Amino acid sequence: MGGIVHIPVNEAVRDDEAVRNFRSYLLAERNASELTALGYEQDISQFAAFRWGVEAAAPFDWQHVTSEDARSFLMAFARDGAKATTTRRKLASLRAFFRHMVRQGALAANPFTGLHGPKLPKPLPRTLSARDVAILIAAPEEELKQRKRAGQTVTPADVYRSARDTALFETLYSTGCRISEVMSLAWRQIGFSTGSVIVTGKGAKQRLCLLGKPALKALRRLRDTAAERWPDGGDDATSVFLNDHGRPMTPRDAQRCMKYWLAFAGLPADITPHKLRHSFATHLLDAGADLRSVQEMLGHSSLATTQIYTHVSVEHLKDEYMKAHPLAGRRADG
């Protein structure tokens, strides 16, 4: 039959009084659609076929369903290789069905209470390639050059925005900081002589982050440009990243800026400032950086949080292996 995953719908379930009552409840009180109600019926039907057989007829003996029956049903899906999302949906459907019967006084206890579905796999962080990061960082300056070549007017505000956004992307990628951490920086926190910056992260914890030469160069240019625009633009107490009115930028401001430059550079529109943090971690691990060092740089309290980037790094290595190795595409039995 192909396992429990392929058990067909038992039409007799629709003749069961408890199922009909539950269906009416879904449609009338929960405002569920016909399609949603059908989905519940199919899940209940599959359980009925598992418990009493495909040919069983209504009414079904719901009162004698045990927690062991419920557990066995879910384990059968796991054995058949069902997706975690599918098994969790079956659990939710049947838990709701039996909970309704308990509320109606038809059952004393819900056999699906206390059961947990399989954990959903965590999606791997989306990262940019080093080439795409370079394209994004270069975008503000490239637009300025294009406008000059076209003979268009370039204002001091345009020059400042170009310097600011270049420095913003350089700082995010160089430090691996969260956007909120970068937006809260003041000039006194930038160590131009040491190539470092002290940021305040989650839980008001401070950590030391490093600034590469391109980031330091971009920040120096930004400070000079800010000082030209506003009397206190380059002062130690002034925020590093200012909006067009000379006030501190917000994380939302930074996200809007990035959207503009992504469109200009032809990069995917769903990239966010946080993707630069993911890219920072993944590129360091790709190059052989120590996991605990990356943990310190990211400000993670747990090494387990940082380890997700090792999976991204391995996937990258697999891709490169498949593209480059002369035998990678051959069958193992070939």
Structure, explained:
The longest helix is centred in the last third of the chain and has 22 residues, at 303-324. The protein is elongated. The model is unreliable at 330-334 (pLDDT under 50). 31% of the residues are buried. It has helices at residues 17-28, 34-52, 67-79, 84-103, 130-149, 156-175, 179-183, 213-229, 251-265, 273-286, 291-298, 303-324; strands at 190-191, 196-200, 206-210. The protein has a three-stranded antiparallel beta sheet. Strand 2 and strand 3 (206-210) form a beta hairpin. With 334 residues, it is mainly alpha-helical. It is built from twelve helices and three strands, in the order αααααααβββααααα.
Number of helices: 12
Give the biggest beta sheet. 3 strands, antiparallel
Strand content: under 5%
List how many beta strands DSSP finds.
Answer: 3
Number of domains: 2
How much helical structure, as a percent, in the residues?
55-70%
CATH topology of the largest domain: hpI Integrase, Chain A
Structural class: mainly alpha
Average the pLDDT over all residues and give the rounded result: 84
**Uncertain residue ranges:** 330-334
At CATH level 2, the architecture of the largest domain is Orthogonal Bundle
Radius of gyration: 29 Å
Order of helices and strands: HHHHHHHEEEHHHHH
CATH level 1 class label of the largest domain: Mainly Alpha
Give the strand order, joined by hyphens, for the main sheet.
Answer: 1-2-3
CATH superfamily annotation of the largest domain: Intergrase catalytic core
Shape: elongated
N/C terminus separation: 33 Å
